[in-house]
Amino acid sequence: MDARSGGEWMSKVPPVTLMFWVIKIFATTLGETGGDAVTMTWELGYAVGSLIFLGFFAVTLAAQVTSKRYHPFVYWAVVVATTTVGTTMSDYFDRTLGLGYVKSSVILLCGVLAILVVWRLVMGRIEFENITNRKDEVFYWVTILVSNTLGTALGDFTADDAGLGFERGALVFAGLIALVAAAHYLTKISDSVLFWAAYILTRPLGATLGDTLTKPHAQGGLNLSRVTSSLVIAACMILMIFLTYRQTSGQTTTAEPT
Predict the structure, then answer these.
(1) pLDDT digits (tens, 9 = 90+) for 42-83
(2) Other C-beta atoms within 10 Å of 137: how many?
(3) Could you tell me which of 78, 52, 80 has the C-alpha nearest to residue 64?
(4) 169 Ramachandran zone, left/alpha/beta (phi>0; psi -120 to 50)
(5) Residue 255 domain-assigned (yes or no)
């Protein structure tokens, strides 16, 4: 799913390249390890953790919405916020409220589809790269927030209820993402549909990868520290964002007429 040729640099979101998806998977993995660190390692619970990350989401989203152009670190901070909120809220729905993974997944999937339908009806199209106005931006981030919450429930369902475990669950979602990528090149399915399908699938992939890193050996994990894992993943993300932005800026400068 390559970047569009027109209006790319006016958009407030990054072009969709391979590196975009790599950073997105790191962000979703960080959301899992970071969310669990707050709710489980620090024992603050799902409700308090959700409130904390909702506050983080509100602050980062305000910075994103009020900005006049794309700022990579602000954008990815909002993405991370949605993944951590998605982790704690999904766990709250599934475990504290007792909805379970199946009911939560169905409800949240219906929520994502409803948002996309309303977006299509209101704006006449569903965007994923050319986000240049406030309405599209609101729909964009609401879709991401709900889809990341859905992805957490799907990841837990695959690993626990379906009995695949974390590693095999990660392989399942990686395979589904590969199918979406193949559909992009081999079919005429709308890029918007494929983008949002891939976006949803990267969340359970990140959730299962995060659990693979931090869950106890008895549960099929590597039993690594949630806090340390989160810090290492965050550092890798920051480095990739910086290098990607530097490369993109260099290409833009080279393309400018002298």
Answers:
(1) 999 988 999 999 999 999 999 999 998 899 999 999 999 999
(2) 18
(3) 78
(4) alpha
(5) no
Q: What is the pLDDT of residues 217-248, one digit of tens each?
A: 988 899 999 999 999 999 999 999 999 988 87
Q: Is residue 186 a part of any domain in this protein?
A: yes
Picking from 151, 41, 136, the residue whose alpha carbon sits closest to that of residue 87 is 151
Structural domain boundaries, residue 31? 8-248
CB-hemisphere CA count at 13 Å for 204? 30
Predicted structure pTM score = 0.88
The total of structural domains in the chain comes to 1
CA dist., res. 72 & res. 242, Å (int): 8
Task: Kindly state whether residue 80 falls inside one of the protein's structural domains.
Answer: yes
d(CA 239, CA 14): 16
The Cα-based distances of 217 to 103, 117, 152, 212 in angstroms read 28, 43, 21, 9
Is 152 a domain residue? yes
Kindly state the DSSP code that residue 4 receives in the 8-state scheme.
P
In contact, 131 and 137? CB cutoff 8 Å: yes
Report the amino acid identity of residue 68. Answer: K
Whose tokens are 């602050």? That residue is 59
Q: How far is the C-alpha of 37 from the C-alpha of 228, rounded, in Å?
A: 9
Amino acid at position 153, single letter: A
Buried b (16+ CB within 10 A) or exposed e, 31-50: bbbbbbbbbeeeebbbeebb
Q: Tell me which amino acid residue 90 is.
A: S
